[in-house]
Write a structure and sequence with these properties.
Blueprint: H1 2-16, H2 23-41, H3 45-65, H4 74-95, H5 102-107, H6 109-124, H7 137-146, H8 153-163, H9 165-168, H10 170-180, H11 185-202
Amino acid sequence: IFYTLALATVVNGQNIIDGTNGLSASTGIVIFICIGYLGIEINDPQIIQIAILVITLIISFLLFNYPFGKIFLGDSGSYFIGLLGGYLMIKIFASNPQLPTWTAVIVLFYPTLEVIFSYFRKIYSHQSPILPDNKHLHLKIFYLLSKGNTNPVRLYNALVAPFLSIIWLSPLAILPLSLALPHLSLVLLAGLVCLYFFFYFSIPDPE
């Protein structure tokens, strides 16, 4: 039951962050780079090959999606990235109990936290947790950038992913440290969560 809920959370989180061009795909690339790194650590050629293949496919997609959205991931594309990434993480950590468990959460923290935080945020605001709203972090940034500006909306859409790069790139920097110092994994994860909340509560809600 836990793994089913966890996988559903990652899959839906990957779809939620697909609200601006390049964000879900860039996050997916980082996740699969981390998966490839873990594949090297555990000497699993199959995991490495899958990671390289998926990274190549996502980069090919980004050539047309970013910055101005010639094509889009859609539900099927974002769900696929989340499902495959989540499944491989379960497979890696189930087969290699020597790996620090919290490292898996570090790799998947952005889409996972987006879903969990949004769910409880909506309940706290007396809203249905399953209905969409415009208060996700990437949408708050989009409205902040575009507020009062006359440039094309698609320009500000494209600026969200680079603006949030400190969030979706963080696992790349933290993963090696988490593997080298497993006793600090939970502390590192807490730091990522604090970084997310710092950005979220520093940016005003859309009017």
